[in-house]
Amino acid sequence: MNPNCARCCKIVYPTEKVNCLDKFWHKACFHCETCKMTLNMKNYKGYEKKPYCNAHYPKQSFTMVADTPENLRLKQQSELQSQVRYKEEFEKNKGKGFSVVADTPELQRIKKTQDQISNIKYHEEFEKSRMGPSGGEGLEPERRDPQESSYRRPQEQQQPHHIPASAPVYQQPQQQPAAQSYGGYKEPAAPVSIQRSAPGGGGKRYRAVYDYSAADEDEVSFQDGDTIVNVQQIDDGWMYGTVERTGDTGMLPANYVEAI
Question: Where is the LIM zinc-binding domain (predicted)?
């Protein structure tokens, strides 16, 4: 069944039908409501389901609201509510002593820098308190001391127990003990000049069969063929005596010499 035209209300046949704005029109009836200019699907504009040309298309205009007493009252009431909320928020944050600051990238960078500075200062204070009043000066001797004294120190500590008290030549080392360790720091031993003593009589005589270089201040160096006088046995591995060629007195290894 053919529909009726929206303007002339006559039957619209398919050859002259225009389907637009949810209605059916004759091609001749599809014109502007104001100037009656015939329109098509490309140049029409619809307003309230009626066709208009571009020149007579109705423009929307905003209506102004008059400042009636009712509108003035509503406006004043809104302003009062806004002030009340502002005062409530102000009273809540009044005693807290801070203001809200936007978390900008610049503030984030400053905060990160302050955290890094704080961590550096904390680690510095921690290192100072851990090292104690001596600072970093006592760390290096403490590291070297176990390697240097792990082999010699027990023998030096045993020295006063094995040296005969009757031999006057060995009283000086007894009065001047070897280096002592205080918290990892090794106190310097007595000078070599104090340890040296003139050869006395009545001691055993040994001859060196190998060259030996002193590894510590309380030891003596000698060469192959040197004569060692006033020799006293300290333990199975070490002796105490005087090199006749140099006059130096101190400890020497027992397996480097032989009895004469």
Answer: 3-63
